[in-house]
Design goal:
Largest sheet of chain A: 5 strands, antiparallel
Strand order of the largest sheet of chain B: 3-2-4-7-1-8-12-11-9-10
Helix content of chain B: 25-40%
CATH architecture of the largest domain in chain B: 3-Layer(aba) Sandwich
Strand order of the largest sheet of chain A: 6-5-4-7-8
CATH architecture of the largest domain in chain A: Beta Barrel
Radius of gyration of chain B: 19 Å
Largest interface: A-B, 33 and 35 residues
CATH class of the largest domain in chain A: Mainly Beta
Oligomer: heterodimer
CATH topology of the largest domain in chain A: OB fold (Dihydrolipoamide Acetyltransferase, E2P)
Strand content of chain B: 15-25%
Number of helices of chain A: 2
Number of domains of chain B: 2
CATH topology of the largest domain in chain B: Peroxisomal Thiolase, Chain A, domain 1
Helix content of chain A: under 10%
Order of helices and strands of chain A: HHEEEEEEEE
Number of strands of chain A: 8
Largest sheet of chain B: 10 strands, mixed
Structural class of chain A: mainly beta
Number of helices of chain B: 14
Distance between the termini of chain B: 20 Å
Structural class of chain B: alpha/beta
Number of domains of chain A: 2
CATH class of the largest domain in chain B: Alpha Beta
Chain lengths: 135, 389
C-alpha cells in the first residue's frame, strides 16, 4: 500500500484528532465533514478537537488467526473503547495479559508501532490502549 | 409496480473446487437456472451478477460481461451488471433484477452470484473478507473480520448471558441440515464438543463458529408475474424486499448486540409484503459466524431480543421447528462463496416452496425469507417469497 495512505491519517492516528459538531456538540473520531446527528446543519461547523485518550473497554476479542502483518503479535487483544468524550474506536489493548482484560476496564492511549509494509517497507505508528495508571 | 416471480433456479456444488474456475461455476449455475425456467436466450432481457471481490480473488474484474459471454449470450449483446456490496451483493443483485422487471423495463432477467475463493491462500482470503470492514479505522489496528464478530458475541454474552454452548448449537443445527443437502460443502453432522474444543480464531469464536472459504455459484431466472405461468406451474412470488445500510465501522453502531440495518431491512420487507414474522415458515439467514445467526433471528423478530441462543438450543429454529432456519445448512455448512450467498439463499427458499427440498423439506412451507449481510452489518437486505398459487 502506498505511503501517502498512512501519512494522510497521521494527525488522527498520532494525536487522536477528531471533530466536534458546532451544532450539537457531539464528538466524532476520526474527523467527519458532516455530523451523523445534525446532518446539513453541521456543514462548515465541524471543529477539530483532540481526544484526552482515556476511556473504557466496551467489548474485546483475543485474535489468534492473524493477518500476515500481525502474525508476530498473536495472540493479541483488540477492543472497542469508548473514550471519555463518548466516541468509540477500535484499538489493540496492550501491556496486559489477554485473560486480564474485562469489559468496563479503564484504559489510556499510548503511542506505538502499528505495523510495517512488508519486511523492508515503511513502519507506521499510531495509538494503542493500555490499562490506565492509578489516578 | 409489477409483481415479479422466480421461475428458474440453479446452483453448483459448494466447496473447495480446485478443478473449477470462476467462469465454470458461474456458467453452470446460470445454465441450470435457464434450463429450469425453460426460457430461450432470445427471451432474456438482462443479466445481474453479484460478486464481492473477483478482482482480489482471481485478478478478474468485469465479470458480468464474462459470465454472459461464456453462457453463450455474447451475440445477444445483453445489458450485464455486476453488483458489489460485500456479502450482500447477491441479494442486492436480486433486488436490482426485481426492480428492473417491476418497473416494466424488462420482462425476463437472469440473476447470478458467484465467488471463487480458493485460488488464493487462506490467510489472504481472510484478509480479502476483512476488506468489507473499515480498512483505515478497524483493519489497520489488527481487527480481523472474525475479531469484529467476536466482539459482538462477547458483548451479547455480557448483556444477555449467552454462552458458547448457545453459539455451538447454531453450528450443530446447520451441519445437521447441511448433511441433508447434496450440494453442501459439509455434509457431515458435528457435535457441540467438536465446536467447543476447536482451536480459537478470535475469542470467543473458535474454528467451528466460522463459515468456511468456498467456491460456488447460484442463479435465478426472474419474470413478470403475468408472464410467469407461461414458463412454470409454480412461480414463486417476491412478496417484499427491504435493503438498509448503517455505519461502516462496528464501533460507530448504536448497539453492538443487534444490527439496526437488519431490523430496518426486515421491517421494510414485512411492510411491503403486509406480513408478520409469524407468517413465514422458513428463513435463510446470514450465518458467516454462529453469533450472526443469533443476532439475525432476534433482529428479524423470530425470537425475543437476547433469547436467540437458548431458542436455538431448544430447537425453535431446527428443521420443522417453530421457524426452520438455514435448512440448506446456511453459510456454515452449505458454504460461503460470498457473491453467491444471497442468490443461493433464494434458491433454497424456492426449492422449499416448490416442495422440492427432499429430505430437508419443511412441511407446509408457504412463505420463506432470506436475510443477507454485507461487512459487519453496514448493509442488510431481506427478501420475502411466497408461492404464487
Amino acid at each position: 500500500m502506498a505511503i501517502p495512505r498512512f501519512w494522510r491519517e497521521i494527525q488522527s492516528r498520532y494525536n487522536l484528532i477528531g471533530t466536534k459538531c458546532g451544532s450539537c456538540g457531539s464528538v466524532d473520531f476520526p474527523p467527519r465533514a458532516v455530523c451523523p446527528t445534525c446532518g446539513r446543519k453541521s456543514i462548515g461547523k465541524m471543529q477539530r478537537v483532540k481526544l484526552k485518550g482515556t476511556g473504557q473497554v466496551v467489548t474485546y476479542t483475543v485474535i489468534h488467526d492473524a493477518p500476515v502483518n500481525f502474525e508476530m503479535q498473536k495472540p493479541y487483544v483488540v477492543a472497542i473503547v469508548e473514550t471519555d468524550e463518548g466516541v468509540r474506536l477500535t484499538s489493540q489493548i496492550i501491556d496486559v495479559e489477554p485473560d486480564e482484560v474485562t469489559i468496563g476496564m479503564h484504559v489510556q492511549a499510548t503511542f506505538r508501532r502499528l505495523g510495517q509494509e512488508g519486511p523492508a517497507g515503511v513502519i507506521h505508528y499510531g495509538y494503542k490502549f493500555r490499562p490506565e495508571a492509578p489516578r | 409496480m409489477r409483481d415479479v416471480a422466480i421461475i428458474g433456479v440453479g446452483e453448483t456444488q459448494f466447496g473447495e473446487l480446485w478443478d473449477r474456475s470462476f467462469r465454470d461455476l458461474g456458467i453452470e449455475a446460470g445454465l441450470k437456472a435457464i434450463q429450469d425456467a425453460k426460457v430461450t436466450a432470445e427471451e432474456i432481457d438482462a443479466v445481474y451478477v453479484g460478486n464481492m471481490s473477483a478482482g482480489k480473488f482471481i485478478d478478474q474484474e468485469h465479470v458480468s460481461a464474462l459470465v454472459a459471454d461464456y453462457a453463450g449470450l455474447a451475440d445477444m449483446h445483453l445489458p450485464t451488471v455486476r453488483v458489489e456490496g460485500g456479502g450482500a451483493c447477491g441479494a442486492i443483485a436480486l433486488l436490482q433484477g426485481r426492480m428492473a422487471i417491476a418497473s416494466g423495463m424488462y420482462d425476463v432477467v437472469v440473476v447470478g452470484g458467484a465467488e471463487k475463493m480458493t485460488d488464493v491462500g487462506e490467510v489472504q482470503a481472510a484478509e480479502i473478507l476483512s476488506s468489507t470492514a473499515d480498512q483505515e479505522w478497524e483493519s489497520v489496528f489488527g481487527a480481523t473480520f472474525a475479531g469484529l464478530y467476536a466482539m459482538m458475541a462477547r458483548r451479547h454474552m455480557h448483556d444477555f448471558g449467552t454462552k458458547r454452548e448457545h453459539l455451538a448449537a447454531v453450528a450443530v443445527k446447520n451441519h445437521k441440515n447441511g448433511a441433508l443437502n447434496p450440494v453442501a460443502q459439509f455434509q457431515k453432522e458435528i457435535t457441540a464438543e467438536t465446536v467447543l474444543q476447536a482451536p480459537w480464531v478470535a475469542e470467543p469464536l473458535g474454528l467451528f463458529d466460522c463459515a468456511p472459504l468456498s467456491d460456488g455459484a447460484a442463479a435465478l431466472v426472474l419474470c413478470s408475474m403475468d408472464r410467469a405461468r407461461k414458463f412454470t406451474d409454480t412461480p414463486i412470488r417476491i412478496a417484499g424486499s427491504g435493503q438498509a445500510s448503517d455505519f461502516l465501522a462496528l464501533h460507530d453502531r448504536r448497539d453492538l448486540t443487534m444490527m439496526d440495518a437488519s431490523v430496518v431491512a426486515g421491517k421494510r420487507a414485512f411492510a411491503e409484503a403486509r406480513l408478520e414474522p409469524r407468517d413465514v415458515q422458513l428463513a435463510e439467514v446470514h450465518d458467516n459466524f454462529t453469533i450472526t445467526e443469533i443476532l439475525a433471528i432476534e433482529d428479524l423478530r423470530f425470537v425475543e431480543k437476547g433469547k436467540g441462543g437458548p431458542a436455538t438450543m431448544d430447537g425453535v429454529t431446527a428443521l420443522n421447528g417453530k421457524i426452520s432456519v438455514n435448512t440448506s445448512g446456511g453459510l456454515k455448512a452449505r458454504g460461503q462463496p460470498v457473491g453467491a450467498t444471497g442468490v443461493a439463499q433464494a434458491v433454497e427458499i424456492v426449492r422449499q416452496l416448490r416442495g422440492e427440498a427432499g429430505k430437508r423439506q419443511v412441511v407446509g412451507a408457504k412463505r420463506g425469507l432470506t436475510h443477507t449481510l454485507g461487512g459487519t452489518g453496514a448493509t442488510a437486505i431481506v427478501h420475502i417469497f411466497e408461492r404464487g398459487d
